[in-house]
Design brief:
Blueprint: H1 18-24, H2 50-58, H3 72-85, E1 89-93, H4 96-107, E2 113-117, H5 122-134, E3 138-142, H6 147-153, E4 158-164, H7 176-185, E5 189-193, H8 198-201, E6 211-215, E7 229-233, H9 235-248, H10 254-265, H11 267-286, E8 293-295, H12 305-311, E9 318-322, H13 326-336, E10 341-342, E11 352-354, H14 366-371, E12 378-382, H15 388-401
Parallel strand pairs: 2-3, 2-4, 4-5, 5-6, 10-11
Antiparallel strand pairs: 1-7, 6-7, 8-9, 9-12, 11-12
Helix pairs in contact: 1-3, 1-10, 3-10, 4-9, 13-15
């Protein structure tokens, strides 16, 4: 179990709860007495002398150098997220995918090998399946929950294990501690995408993961306003990620970082509400004879229910379900809804609905989608904060369109 660097927090925050950390961690006032965090919209910084400039550029002394890799607003976001994940350090990036890319570039070289769960976000599959091999990095895809398959796929060249849990979109759950143990045996890093749970519900580092990935675009923002991402882990590992950011530039915007800070202030409250709504909708869908299957770890018959109960404090706000009739039925259901937003984003206070097989995972081959459990009749709902009765009524519009 890793601990956050308490030196980065004032004494009165050392034992604070996550609700408090989400509001107070990382605040560094400018000297003007502001109550809210300022936005530092500057590309560069002025030095006191030529010697000061040289010292900062070399890293001999601390301080800001250039906003591609150091910015006070972004730094507050990074410190606050690290505190929430109980980590030593975090690095903000331009998007969730750039956080994954930066992590790969920091720790992989030609000839290395990656083991990745087969049911990850479609763009993650694209990065691992198409672009990493161009750099001489081989990738093996394995079932998320089959720990023996992870071990069998690894070899002496394996440097990263990568998974997301719960997975997108069928909500499978990985045993983080078990995968961490396998990764350790191969001297590889375990990277966990914590987008669906956020640190409000799950802290992968405490279960043995080495690096946590976030799409800040999702729940960390919470209102679908900005693109951003982050990698979280040890100070040494994040220094390597920062070096890639510094050189190649997939940096987080200061304004976006400020918006994410506002999102972190309400993260714990929102995640509890998302969980409550999703749990209610999942149980309602499960009782319907016209639903073939509901994928949500909060359901007692979900294969990952017991595991999720142990390593998560809530089951999250995303669920998926299958309607008989394949793609045609799924599309008719989606098109008949009125309240839910038809968009691929998730983590918003507004409920969103999407057909994964033709959108988020549309670039996968039919075989890849089948292996990941993404059927033509699968519908994903990222449950927002509207009243549960209104969400049920909107789903009923979809069922009515199917004549059931």
């Amino acid at each position: 179990m890793r601990s956050v660097d308490k030196g980065s927090l004032p004494d009165w925050l050392h034992n604070a709860h996550e609700e408090t950390l989400g509001i107070r961690a990382g605040i560094a006032r400018s000297g003007e007495g502001e109550h809210g965090e300022p936005i530092f919209t500057t590309s560069s910084y002025v030095f006191d002398s030529a010697a000061d400039a040289a010292s900062r550029f070399s890293g001999e002394t601390g301080g800001n150098v250039y906003s591609r890799y150091t910015n006070p607003t972004v730094r507050v976001f990074e410190e606050r997220l690290a505190a929430l994940e109980n980590a030593e350090s975090a690095v903000g990036t331009a998007s969730g995918m750039s956080a994954i890319l930066a992590t790969c570039m920091a720790f992989l070289s030609s000839g290395d090998h990656v083991v990745c769960s087969r049911d990850v976000f479609g763009s993650t599959v694209g990065l691992f399946d198409k672009y990493l091999p161009r750099m001489g990095v081989s990738v093996s895809f394995v079932p998320l929950g089959d720990v023996a398959a992870w071990r069998a796929a690894a070899n002496e060249k394996t440097r990263l294990f990568y998974c997301e849990t719960p997975s997108n979109p069928v909500c499978e759950v990985a045993d983080i501690a078990a995968l961490a143990a396998v990764a350790k045996d191969f001297e590889a890093r375990l990277v966990v995408d914590n987008c669906f749970c956020t640190p409000a519900l799950q802290k992968p580092l405490e279960h043995g993961a080495d690096i946590v990935i976030h799409s800040a675009t999702k729940y960390l923002d919470g209102q679908g306003r900005m693109l951003g991402g982050a990698a979280v882990g040890s100070a040494a590992d994040m220094a390597e990620v920062t070096n890639f950011i510094r050189t190649c530039g997939p940096s987080m915007s200061p304004f976006n970082a400020w918006v994410f800070l506002k999102g972190l202030e309400t993260l714990s409250l929102r995640m509890r509400a998302h969980c409550e709504n999703a749990n209610g909708l999942a149980h309602w869908l499960q009782q319907r004879p016209d639903v073939a299957r509901v994928h949500y770890a909060g359901l007692s018959d979900h294969p990952g229910h017991q595991l999720a109960s142990r390593q998560q404090s809530g089951f999250g706000g995303v669920l998926s379900f299958e309607v008989p009739g394949g793609q045609d039925a799924a599309w008719r259901f989606i098109d008949a809804t009125s309240l839910m937003s038809l968009t691929a984003n998730l983590g918003d206070v507004k409920t969103t609905i999407v057909h994964p097989a033709t959108t988020t995972h549309g670039r996968l081959s039919p075989a890849q989608r089948s292996a990941a459990g993404i059927t033509p009749g699968l519908i994903r709902i990222a449950v927002g904060l509207e009243h549960i009765d209104d969400l049920k009524a909107d789903c009923q519009r979809g069922f009515d369109a199917l004549g059931v």
